[in-house]
Amino acid sequence: MSVVAEGASDAWVITRRNLRKILRVPDVLVFTTLSPIMFVLLFAYVFGNAIGSQDTGVDYTEFLVPGIFAQTVVFGATFTGYSLAEDLQKGIIDRFRSLPMSSSSVVLGRTVADIGINIVSLVVMALTGLVVGWRIRSSVLDALAGFVVLLLFAFAVSWIMASVALLVRTPEVVNNASFIVIFPLTFIANTFVSISNLPGPLATFANWNPVSSVCQAARELFGNTDPAAPVPDAWSMQHPVPYTLIWVVIILAVFVPLSIRLYRRAASR
Question: What is the distance of C-alpha 257 from the center of its chain?
């Protein structure tokens, strides 16, 4: 068996281990899915009238739900970092180190398993969105492409969180460090309001914020945009799908080798 095949096989074993762990502790999955439901209901019914009066070009619920999708998968990526740090803290990584397995398979298996969690979250959010009035107004293929773009971006961000976990090594610090970065990224964006409603410097940042492009890409692929709306000034908002994919490639190119190197260093301590 080739080195690549062995690594893929090892990663699949770790992926199954992580998925079984979630099934055996269903509380994690329950609370992971409750958070996006809460955001959808809170913004749709509590803040919807106030925020929805701003110029989004479409019904606010249809503007909101793709943004919630993007926010949830980005926040969901922190679970990768938390779980890796927890395994380090409990000594499970030391047990993996004693086994004849690829060093990259542990991190890869963790990030792939979290795709499963994000799929469940997206399904739950989509059903909740349909209840509050969100609709997919594009083709089936376009809609599937929208979900794929969201999952690809989440997969890339999970490698960033893996690197953070392998640097700080404690779950509590991972959570705090992650939220310091992710919180402003998801709120200084077009997640909940149109970029046109933001003041100058924040609008410029939001235009080039990859979270904004993920939201915009999802809205376009789900058919939740106004065809008559003016063309955005920023190239990133004019071409949100390729801009998002560029970020995915850059993040993976930087953080996959970095995470593997940090894992080898952490496992050798």
Answer: 20
Mind listing the pLDDT tens digit for each residue in 116-154?
888 888 888 899 889 888 999 999 999 999 999 999 999
**Residues lower than pLDDT 50 in the chain:** 1
Joined tokens for residue 21: 């762990």
- Give the span between the Cα atoms of 69 and 73, in whole angstroms: 6
Q: How far apart are the C-alpha atoms of 81 and 176, rounded to whole Å?
A: 11
CA dist., res. 38 & res. 121, Å (int): 12
Q: What is the CA radius of gyration of the chain?
A: 19
| Cα-Cα-Cα-Cα dihedral sign, residues 228, 231, 232, 235 | positive
Nearest to 140 by CA among 222, 257, 32, 249: 222
Contacts of 138-145 with C-beta under 8 Å, sequence gap 24+, read 138/221, 138/222, 138/223, 142/221, 142/222, 142/223, 143/221, 143/222, 145/221, 145/241
pLDDT in tens, 19-37: 777 777 666 667 777 877 8
The predicted model scores a pTM of: 0.88
Q: Could you give the CA distance from residue 193 to residue 7 in angstroms, rounded to a whole number?
A: 43
